[in-house]
Write a structure and sequence with these properties.
About 45% of the residues lie in helices and about 20% in strands. The chain is an alpha+beta fold. Strand 1 and strand 2 form a beta hairpin. Helix 4 packs across helix 6 and helix 7 packs antiparallel against helix 9.
C-alpha cells in the first residue's frame, strides 16, 4: 500500500483524533461557556470562541460575546492557527494578506491558540477577537495557553467519562443477561434435586439419571456464562465462533431439559440429518434459543411438548430457528408489544413468576444480529416464534 504524503497523513490523523472524541457540537455551549468568558476577560476583548475543525467545517462549540455555530473551514481565520505550534496573533486583520478578505465585520484583532491533544493532533483552536488593533503581553499569552490546555483536558475528560459510562452500562447489561438467562436452568436443577429428594424409593439407575442430568446442566451453565461474558467483551476483530446444529441441540437440552422435566414437558430439537453438521455463528445463539425455550416451557401446560426446529438455507445464508409451544398464546396487541421490545410481565402456567424480560432480551439480541423475529399465535392454541439470523462471516 503506497504511503500517504506527509501533509495528508497528518490531516488524516488530526481528523481521526477529533472524531474519537465523539462530540455533539451543538450541545457543549454551557459546559465551556465559562472558559470562553475567561479567555475574553484575560485578553480584554468582548468575544471568544472555542472552535473544532474537521475536514470541511469549523464548528463553534462555545462562544462568548458573539454567536457562531459553523462556517466553511476555508473561510475561517482559525485554519491558519492549526499550522502554528503555540499561537497565532494578528494585530490588524484588515492589513494582513491572509485575513483581509475574510468576513470579520468591524473586528480588527485576532489571537488563536491551537487545541493540541496529548498525542500532538491539533483538533481546533481557542480564538479571541476584538475591534481594536493590539498586541498582548507575554503574561496574558501564557495565561491563554493554560485556558487552551484546560479546554483539551475537559474534552478528554468528557470522552473518558463517556467511555466509563459505556463500560458500566455494558457491565450492568451483562449482569442482567447472566441473572436472567441463569434463572430457568438453575430452577430446573433445583427442581430435579427436589424431585429426587421426595422420591421414597429411588433406584440406583434413577439416582444416576438425576445426577447425570444435573451434571450436564451445570456444565452447560458454565459454558453459557462464558459465552455471555465473551460476547460482552467481543471486538470486531475477534475470530467468529461457530457451532453445529448437533452441538447446539445438545447444549440446549443440557440447559433446559431439567426445567422441562419438572413440568413433565417433552423438549424436542428437530433438524434434518444432513443439517446435523451444519456450522452456524454461535454469537448469542444460545441466549436467543434458550430464552425462547425457557419462555415456552413456562407458558406450556403440564405434559405438553416444546419443539425447537432448526433450518439453514444455503442460498440466502439464513439460519431459521423456530420454537413451538402449547401455551395460551398471545393477542395481536401482545404480539405487537413483543415486536416493539416492550416487556410483558405475566405468570406461567404453573404460576411461575414472569418478569417480561425474556422476549425483550430476544428482541434485543436478534436486532444485534441484524435478524428478524416473527410471532404466530392464536389465543388458547399456542405460539410459534420464528427467528431468522443472517450468517455473516
Amino acid at each position: 500500500m503506497p504511503q500517504l504524503p506527509e501533509e495528508v497523513a497528518l490531516e488524516f490523523n488530526r481528523v481521526k483524533s477529533l472524531n474519537q472524541f465523539k462530540l455533539e457540537y451543538d450541545k457543549l455551549q454551557d459546559e465551556f461557556e465559562n472558559l470562553t468568558k475567561l479567555a475574553a476577560t484575560i485578553a480584554e476583548t468582548d468575544m471568544a470562541m472555542i472552535n473544532l475543525v474537521d475536514n470541511f467545517t469549523l464548528w463553534t462549540i462555545s462562544c462568548y460575546g458573539i454567536y457562531n455555530s459553523q462556517m466553511p473551514r476555508e473561510e475561517s481565520i482559525c485554519q491558519y492557527t492549526l499550522k502554528e505550534d503555540e499561537y497565532l496573533e494578528i494585530s490588524a486583520i484588515k492589513k494582513d494578506s491572509r485575513t483581509n478578505t475574510k468576513a470579520v465585520g468591524d473586528n480588527n484583532y485576532y489571537i488563536g491558540f491551537p487545541l493540541i491533544t496529548p498525542t500532538g493532533e491539533k483538533i481546533g483552536a481557542l480564538c479571541i477577537v476584538g475591534k481594536s488593533e493590539k498586541k498582548l503581553p507575554a503574561t496574558k499569552i501564557e495565561q491563554l495557553k493554560l485556558v487552551a490546555h484546560e479546554i483539551v483536558e475537559k474534552l478528554a475528560l468528557k470522552r473518558d467519562l463517556e467511555s466509563a459510562r459505556n463500560l458500566v452500562t455494558d457491565a450492568l447489561h451483562t449482569q442482567k443477561k447472566l441473572a436472567h438467562d441463569f434463572r430457568g436452568p438453575v430452577n430446573g436443577i433445583l427442581g430435579i434435586t427436589n424431585l429426587a429428594s421426595y422420591e421414597e424409593e429411588l433406584t440406583v439407575d434413577e439416582a444416576k439419571t438425576y445426577l447425570n442430568m444435573i451434571g450436564q446442566s451445570s456444565t452447560a451453565l458454565l459454558g453459557l456464562a462464558s459465552e455471555i461474558l465473551k460476547s460482552g467483551n467481543r471486538n470486531n476483530d475477534d475470530e467468529i465462533s461457530l457451532i453445529s446444529f448437533e452441538e447446539l441441540g445438545d447444549r440446549l437440552k443440557d440447559l433446559y431439559l431439567p426445567q422441562a422435566v419438572i413440568k413433565d414437558i417433552s423438549l424436542d430439537v428437530n433438524f434434518s440429518l444432513e443439517d446435523s453438521t451444519t456450522m452456524v455463528v454461535r454469537d448469542n445463539l444460545l441466549q436467543i434459543a434458550g430464552n425462547l425455550i425457557s419462555n415456552a416451557i413456562k407458558f406450556s401446560p403440564r405434559s405438553e411438548r416444546v419443539i425447537l426446529e432448526l433450518k439453514f438455507n444455503e442460498d440466502s445464508n439464513i439460519l431459521t430457528l423456530k420454537v413451538i409451544d402449547s401455551g395460551n398464546g398471545f393477542s395481536i396487541e401482545k404480539i405487537q408489544n413483543i415486536i416493539d421490545g416492550k416487556a410483558i410481565p405475566s405468570a406461567g402456567s404453573n404460576g411461575e413468576i414472569g418478569y417480561g424480560l425474556g422476549l425483550k432480551v430476544v428482541r434485543h439480541l436478534v436486532d444485534e444480529r441484524h435478524g428478524n423475529l416473527k410471532i404466530y399465535s392464536v389465543p388458547g392454541r399456542g405460539s410459534e416464534f420464528v427467528v431468522e439470523l443472517p450468517q455473516i462471516l
